[in-house]
Amino acid sequence: MTIRLFLASQSPRRRELLGQIGVGFEVVDVDVPERREPGESPQDYVSRVAREKAGAGLLQLGAVPDALVLGADTEVVLDDEVFGKPADAADAAAMLRRLSGRAHRVVSTVWLVSAGREEHATSLSTVEFMPLDEAAIAAYVASGEAFGRAGAYAIQGRAGRFVRHLEGSYSGVMGLPLYETGELLRRFGAG
Ligand SMILES: Cc1cn([C@H]2C[C@H](O)[C@@H](COP(=O)(O)OP(=O)(O)OP(=O)(O)O)O2)c(=O)[nH]c1=O
Fold first, then answer.
1. Would you list the domain boundaries of the chain?
2. Nearest to 61 by CA among 109, 29, 101, 19
3. Calpha distance 31→93 (Å, rounded)
4. Measured between alpha carbons, how far is 90 from 110 in angstroms, rounded to an integer?
5. In terms of pTM, does the model score above 0.90?
6. Does 106 sit in the ligand 1 pocket, CB within 6 Å?
7. pLDDT digit string, tens, across residues 19-63
8. Where does the record place the catalytic residues (predicted)?
């Protein structure tokens, strides 16, 4: 029987990125709470959430035979603090102020989960921002691009001009590391 790949995500970026590598897939909508447990490291947190998304997708599909579910999570990390999606404009501006003129990490983990097997891979990137003044931060927040994005920015959008240096994976920063995803899919015979 052929494997059916499902992307457990509501993120349009992840659909676009998975489509980019020419893999056929369907989408299953999941809604997993994203809350870091006390004492949980940023990487453990990202991995747990990504795994929970994939697990929730598999559960939701129930009786689909040979379903393989991909779950992913991406967070921005600065000084061991995790910056998820901003709650509002003030939160977005506060995150950008903290990211201004320094380097931060972006952690992206992908889990592939099927009825009898699960595997994961993590991509770690370092992104260095130019210094941002209050006017630049206000204009960026007003553009609306900060919302729904970890760390209140989108490298693939206007914030591309803030990025002085990137080490790691551009697709990983955007939400789905394509090298790691491709290798995982190959191991499952799904791409
Ligand atoms: C840092 C960064 C993040 N992002 C996005 C990718 C993710 O969609 C989002 C991080 O939030 P996630 O919780 O990883 O994903 P999500 O809630 O958008 O989607 P789902 O859980 O349904 O899969 O931030 C960008 O688009 N560009 C960037 O440069």
1. 4-187
2. 29
3. 26
4. 30
5. yes
6. yes
7. 999 999 999 999 999 999 999 999 999 999 999 999 999 999 987
8. 73
Q: Which of 149, 102, 100, 104 is nearest to 124 (CA)?
A: 104
- To test the pocket of ligand 1, the residue of 7, 13, 15 to mutate (highest count of ligand atoms within 8 Å of its CB) is 13
d(C-alpha 4, C-alpha 35), whole Å:
30
CATH number of 4-187: 3.90.950.10
> What is the atom index within ligand 1 of the atom nearest the CA of 106?
1
Give yes or no for a contact between 41 and 106, defined as CB atoms under 8 angstroms apart. Answer: no
**Which alpha helices (DSSP H) does the chain contain, by range?**
12-20, 42-61, 89-99, 134-142, 170-174, 178-187
What tokens were used for 157? 């959008």
**Ligand 1: residue whose CA is nearest its atom 27:** 154
Please state, in angstroms and as integers, the Cα–Cα distance from residue 180 to each residue in 45, 100, 129, following that order: 18, 29, 25
Q: Cβ contacts of residue 35 below 8 Å, gap of 6+? A: none
Alpha carbon nearest to ligand 1 atom 6, residue? 175
ipTM, two decimals: 0.97
Place of tokens 């394509």: 178
C-alpha distances (whole Å) from 189 to each of 58, 144, 183 are 18, 40, 10
What is the spatial distance between Cα 79 and Cα 87, in angstroms, rounded to a whole number?
Answer: 20
- Cβ(93)–Cβ(137) below 8 Å: yes
